[in-house]
């Protein structure tokens, strides 16, 4: 239970504040792991990249085209994003054979360029937020605003099948990992008064709801 990790202050049990970057990494990793088809695609690409990198002959085309393929690192989900990005760049640099060969099942890459690009588009907002959470000037006023940006960017209504399920899994895991923050009066108030980004989020349904909640609960901080 999470209560074992709380800090006891007098008679109050207070949850520990933890790194947003770490929470996000755990949430996205879990969301990806629960998406079986996507996990299978990532495993195929990582295995393929490993085989190419171990063979001087197989890697020749990639070396000539300056297209280095990356493998996954199981501890950080961002390695999955960077791996997908490396495959997309390899496609763009013509390191693989042409599209007609793919129809004949002769193409060396096990996943089509279109599929790789579609998953990159889903993961890009998460990767962007992951980089932002690691900046030195990142503070608690940015956390909820960053999460709202993610929830607005991850739109499952535009996808079908496995991709839709991936988005739902990601959003659900993020809500679970950031549950305390999303319900915290301190974080909500900090986000509301983080004026540098209010214009960016103005009109968002999630932000309007949190803003109303912050205004209603602000008096509690003066007693």
TrEMBL record:
InterPro entries: RNaseH-like_sf (IPR012337). This is Uncharacterized protein. It comes from Brachionus calyciflorus.
């Amino acid at each position: 239970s999470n209560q074992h990790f709380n800090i006891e202050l007098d008679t109050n049990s207070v949850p520990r504040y933890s790194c947003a970057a770490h929470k996000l990494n755990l949430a996205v990793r879990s969301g990806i792991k629960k998406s079986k088809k996507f996990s299978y695609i990532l495993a195929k690409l990582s295995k393929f990249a490993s085989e190419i990198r171990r063979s001087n002959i197989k890697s020749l085309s990639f070396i000539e085209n300056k297209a280095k393929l990356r493998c996954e690192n199981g501890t950080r989900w961002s390695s999955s994003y960077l791996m997908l990005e490396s495959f997309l760049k390899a496609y763009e640099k013509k390191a693989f054979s042409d599209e007609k060969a793919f129809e004949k099942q002769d193409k060396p890459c096990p996943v089509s360029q279109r599929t790789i690009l579609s998953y990159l588009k889903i993961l890009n907002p998460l990767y962007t937020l992951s980089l932002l959470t690691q900046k030195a000037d990142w503070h608690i006023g940015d956390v909820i605003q960053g999460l709202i940006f993610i929830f607005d960017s991850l739109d499952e209504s535009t996808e079908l099948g496995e991709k839709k399920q991936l988005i739902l899994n990601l959003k659900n895991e993020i809500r679970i990992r950031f549950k305390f923050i999303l319900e915290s009066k301190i974080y909500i108030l900090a986000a509301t008064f983080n004026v540098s980004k209010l214009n960016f989020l103005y009109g968002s349904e999630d932000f309007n709801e949190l803003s109303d909640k912050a205004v209603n609960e602000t008096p509690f901080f003066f007693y």
